[in-house]
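Dear Dr. L.,

I hope this message finds you well. Following up on our conversation about the binding site, I have prepared a predicted three-dimensional model of the protein together with zinc ion. For your records, I am including the exact sequence and ligand specification that went into the calculation, followed by the structure tokens. Please feel free to forward this to your student if that is useful.
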Amino acid sequence: MESIAKNSLVFKIQRTAEKIFLMIKNDINQIDKTWIYILGIIGLNVLFACYNIPLKRAFQLQLFNIIFLVLIAFPGNKPLRLTGTILSIFSNLLLIILVTVQGILYANYNADLDSTFVIESLANTNLNESSEFLRSLPPTFIFPLILAGSFFLVQTALTLRLYSLRPTSSKFYKYFAVFLCGLSVFAWCKESWRVRFPTGETLKLTSAVEDMQQQWQMSKAENDAALVSAKALLGDISLQPQTIVLVIGESTTRQTMQLYGYIRKNTPMLTKEYQTNPAFLRSDEAYSTEASTIRAFESMFKFEFQQGKNKENLLAMFKAAGYKIIWISNQDDTAIKKTYQYFADKNFNLNHQKGRDSQSMDSVVLNPLKEALKDGTDKKLIVVHLIGLHPHYSLRYPAGTKRNWPEDDVVEKGLEAKDRSPRTQWLRDEYDLAMLYQDKIIYETLKMTESIKQKGTATWIYLSDHGVETGEHLDLVGHSPNTPGGYAIPFLFWSEKSGGSFNKSEAQTRNFRADWLSYLLMDLGGLNSSEMTKMKSWMSPEYQWKEPAVVEKISKKFGIIN
Ligand SMILES: [Zn+2]
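The resulting structure of the complex is given below.
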């Protein structure tokens, strides 16, 4: 009877269930210790990292350490467990240092670890300065450092405790360990992730600092030569007191500015000012000859002083002529700094984050501009470089900025009629909102220049480095070398002297090209009155317009008649 019962199906099921139950019970007992420590160490690490850096990166960094933690719980292999313990403590130390340094940089300078701001500071610092800095640490650095030290001690104690535990032999552990190791191995194998580990970051930073020092050496020689050349070309000149404020926007196209007839009311302040201020002028057809920043800067500030000869650097010219140059920048750009800002007597670098993700509202330029305008020097060139409408557009206006045009307006219908993607449509909305914010900033810089009394004549110029496509000719909103929007820029001018002989209607119909900006500035600054300057300076009575080749080509392609 008994043997029959043992072979019955019910009995077999019962025995299997008992086995599974025992296995789970056994596993759960072991999970109690080993896994609580492993998950606890990972969890605490993520919490600490989140305190210092964004959540996504905090998680990404933890993946590197997981494989070492899993090794500690490796059943029965002591050397492997010891190796795991040592590697885990060491990698924890490096990760804690990295996130603490990045956290301090964010909190004190709003700067990324690989920003030009950090690279330049390191490239510009010698050993003496570093040790001096360490001896007199700012108080805001002290708390994060104490926190990091304490945290490292806690993590080390937990890791050693994990090592002292009896390794788990749970099946669950094995499956879960394989899964976690897989994630960790992926993080170590994928190059773009691996370089985020502290050793990778350090190598990247060291090579960026060396590159920067080399570039400085090279550009110093180049800039010194430009200065010698400028001095020789200018000779002895005597200049009238003069203040020139040059405001350079970013990625701003006149095609979508209310001031230029755009239907959305996104530049109400400038539009009203234009209607009421007789000295505030605009050129209706203004073009850049390049569609990206660095090339546009080169076209604006490197120019042929003598036909057929090497190009001169406009900033070197102003420097050689005895102007005080003050440069206020809300863009973190190495090339611009080393080639143009190099000549400035005073630099305000206000943005310490790189490129598209940087978040620094253009209002930061206003106080430095006020300070610069109050500078008592009688010959000044003040350059204000805005972040303007640099993508991502949603980062270019304060949260809560409200549109003052209807939801389903002609613009939206027009884009729909052109079958533009939803992405293009919402980017266009963001672009227009960012323009609404730019309106205030540009207007403020003009009003400040007007209101602070200068010695001699004051002049204010606004233009954008280049334009962008806004969904009119292509299904995209952004940099665009092949459509008219890429080159259609605004050009605005105000001078104490304008409004008389050189009036609004004359200015409107006088086209402007940004690669002739240097000639206009040379003319305004009283630096040169050669034939070439007269023909290419926008304010000269002898100005002779010539359409830029690139604009002609693109206009033809799109059937636009200028
Ligand atoms: Zn640009």
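In brief: The two ends are 106 Å apart (CA to CA).

With kind regards,
A. P.
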